[in-house]
Write a structure and sequence with these properties.
The protein is mostly beta strands. It folds into 2 domains: 46 residues, no CATH class; 98 residues, Immunoglobulins (Immunoglobulin-like). Strand 1, helix 1 and strand 2 form a beta-alpha-beta unit. The protein starts with a strand and ends with a strand.
Length: 157
């Protein structure tokens, strides 16, 4: 069991995957902290290095031209089990990051799919005409580790 001091802070986003895994060996980590009202918080989590590959996105891709906003199917290749740990699902996200509206700054479609899924139909009526969207597919393995791939597409007018 590894203990992490409450004062230790890492800038994880600046690390490569190799550096991150070197700094944090697989195993159980204990956490100690204080809540906003001073209450003591204690917990533990198991960290594995069973990181799935990011799914290979097949369609639509940034250079594939505009898609039919009433008939868009997102497609990806399945991901293999990292170190034998099965993929338990895919999270598919379609995001319009800037609507131009203060009251509704972003619109997101977020769907959990089974591990057998390799495509998802975007509900007709969700996509706006002549608009760029970002889409992501996260592969999630049994230990909770997940890796994502992302791309952009534009809808037809």
């Amino acid at each position: 069991m590894r203990a992490v001091a409450a004062a230790t802070c890492y800038t994880l986003y600046a690390l490569s995957a190799v550096e991150l895994l070197e700094r944090f060996p697989a195993g159980e980590y204990r956490f100690l902290g204080r809540g906003i009202e001073g209450e003591k918080l204690v917990g533990s989590a198991t960290l594995t290095h069973d990181l799935p590959d990011g799914p290979t996105l097949l369609y639509p891709l940034e250079d594939s031209g505009p898609v039919d906003r009433f008939n868009t199917v997102l497609m990806w290749e399945p991901v293999g089990a990292p170190n034998g740990s099965p993929i338990i699902g895919y999270q598919v996200i379609v995001d319009l990051p800037d609507t131009g509206l203060v009251a509704l700054p972003k619109i997101t479609l977020d769907v959990m799919m089974p591990p057998t899924a390799t495509s998802m139909i975007v509900p007709p009526g969700f996509l706006l005409p002549d608009t760029e969207y970002e889409w992501e597919v996260l592969a999630i393995e049994a230990g909770g580790n997940q890796t994502l791939s992302s791309s952009f597409f534009t809808t037809s007018p």
